[in-house]
Structures are given as structure tokens and as C-alpha cells.
């Protein structure tokens, strides 16, 4: 993801799109454009130190299914990996922003990044009942933090949250699996965004062009190699 974005910064996206769109079928082009028109970064799930590959894959798959383009990943003790059979290829279409051990403090790096971008920082925590998915404020973008499977949200992350959201429980078990929680919350928030008619929660047109180019390249056999070769004409 990072390498491709850096490369796209050096080439004219519109010219690249005109060139590479010809390499996919009209049906494929229509499908990519129709999905992209519904994409949003208004809600960003942020996974903290997820241990089980199937959970990471399921959350990325849910982000794709609910039309959210970005997933944040905080690596503390566990390196990010996912189970491809669970993700079902969703990782090709969703951007992952990883805060790893390359930072002095990955937790605070993620918190500072989304705060500076104007996000409301919301912790998904079953033991707090400040908001449910049905009444969480959506007046500004939301970075939704999910804790590790056993430990939950790190105390430092909890202390930095603006708000908390919990799914109402009606049984003896105190919480859902983290990937199930993400699915319930993300689906609920997506439905609310569409129902209230919030303006501009979709990705802006200029950024959509960049994402479309990424998706087209990923749809072409050896697309990255073809892009590398084609883009050499723009090297200084």
C-alpha cells in the first residue's frame, strides 16, 4: 500500500487511468466504479494487537462489506496477519494503516494520527454503557478502537478515548467475539450514516480516482509490474 501510494504521487493519475482502464472489461470497470461510489473513510475501525488471524481477516472483510475503505492496525506484541480464507480477498480493496514497532509508541502514534485528522476517538468496550451503536454521535468522523481478544483495550488507549460504545447484551456472556462486535457496530453505523443523509461522508472524487487506479491495477494480471514499466516514462 505505501509503495503504491508513493508511486502514484509521481504519475498523472488521470492519464494512468485512461491507459489501464482499457485493460479490464466494461463489466469489471462498472463494478469497480459502483463499489467505489459507496466507499467512505468516515468510520475507521482500528484493531489493537489482534492475535488471531481469523479475527483480523473478518474485520477487514466487514470493513469492505460495509463500504469503509480504511482499517487501522496497532502492533504492540503481535504482528498483523490475517487468514486469507476468512478475508476472502477483501484485503485487496481495503487500505490498511499500520502503526508498528517502527514507532516509539504505536498506541500513541495511532491515537495522535486520528485525533489530528479530526476523528472522534471511540473505544468499543463491553463494560461501558456511554453509547450504543444506535446513538453514538456521528457529527464528526469516528475512529473505532477494538482491543485485543483477551485483554481488551489497553489502559493507555482507554484513557485517550473521547467516548465509548457497547453493544447491548441480553445473555450471560459478557461480550461478543471482537470480529462479531466489529461487524455489528460497523453495519449499524453504516445504516445510520445513510439514513440520516449525512453529506460528504463518501470519499471525495479526487481520492476516488486514486483508489480506482489502485483497484484497476490489482485487477490486472501482473498489474504492479505493468504499472512499474509504464510509469518509467515519468521518471526524472
CATH superfamily of the domain at 39-171: SPOUT methyltransferase, trefoil knot domain
Figure out the total of helices: 10
CATH class of the domain at 39-171: Alpha Beta
Classify the beta-strand content into a percent band. 5-15%
Share of helical residues: 40-55%
Rounded radius of gyration (Å): 19 Å
Number of strands: 6
Average pLDDT metric: 87
Question: How would you portray this structure in words?
Answer:
The model has no long low-confidence stretch (mean pLDDT 87). A 6-stranded parallel β-sheet has the order 3-2-1-5-4-6, sandwiched between helices. It has a domain of 133 residues: SPOUT methyltransferase, trefoil knot domain (Alpha/beta knot). By secondary structure, the protein is of the alpha/beta class. β1, α4 and β2 form a beta-alpha-beta unit. The protein is built from 10 helices and 6 strands.
Features:
236 residues, Alpha/beta knot, 6-stranded parallel sheet, 10 helices
Layout of secondary structure:
Elements: H1 2-8, H2 13-20, H3 26-36, E1 43-48, H4 53-65, E2 70-74, H5 84-87, E3 95-99, H6 106-116, E4 120-124, E5 142-146, H7 155-160, E6 163-165, H8 178-195, H9 205-219, H10 223-231
Parallel strand pairs: 1-2, 1-5, 2-3, 4-5, 4-6
Helix pairs in contact: 2-9, 3-9, 4-8, 9-10
Amino acid at each position: 500500500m505505501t509503495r503504491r501510494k508513493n508511486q502514484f504521487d509521481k504519475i498523472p493519475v488521470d492519464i494512468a487511468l485512461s491507459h489501464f482502464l482499457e485493460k479490464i472489461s466494461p463489466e469489471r470497470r462498472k463494478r469497480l466504479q459502483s463499489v467505489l461510489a459507496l466507499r467512505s473513510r468516515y468510520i475507521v475501525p482500528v484493531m489493537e494487537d489482534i492475535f488471531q488471524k481469523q479475527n483480523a481477516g473478518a474485520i477487514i472483510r466487514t470493513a469492505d462489506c460495509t463500504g469503509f475503505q480504511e482499517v487501522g492496525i496497532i502492533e504492540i506484541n503481535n504482528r498483523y496477519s490475517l487468514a486469507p480464507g476468512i478475508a476472502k480477498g477483501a484485503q485487496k480493496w481495503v487500505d490498511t494503516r499500520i502503526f508498528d514497532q517502527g514507532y516509539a509508541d504505536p498506541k500513541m502514534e495511532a491515537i495522535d494520527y486520528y485525533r489530528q485528522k479530526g476523528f472522534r476517538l471511540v473505544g468499543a468496550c463491553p463494560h461501558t454503557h456511554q453509547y450504543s451503536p444506535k446513538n453514538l454521535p456521528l457529527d464528526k468522523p469516528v475512529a473505532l478502537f477494538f482491543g485485543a481478544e483477551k485483554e481488551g483495550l489497553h489502559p493507555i488507549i482507554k484513557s485517550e478515548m473521547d467516548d465509548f460504545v457497547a453493544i447491548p447484551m441480553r445473555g450471560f456472556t459478557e461480550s461478543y467475539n471482537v470480529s462479531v462486535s466489529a461487524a455489528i457496530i460497523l453495519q449499524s453505523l453504516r445504516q445510520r450514516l445513510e439514513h440520516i443523509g449525512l453529506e460528504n461522508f463518501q470519499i471525495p472524487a479526487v481520492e476516488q480516482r486514486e483508489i480506482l487506479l489502485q483497484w484497476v491495477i490489482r485487477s490486472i494480471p501482473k498489474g504492479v509490474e505493468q504499472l512499474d514499466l509504464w510509469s518509467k516514462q515519468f521518471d526524472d
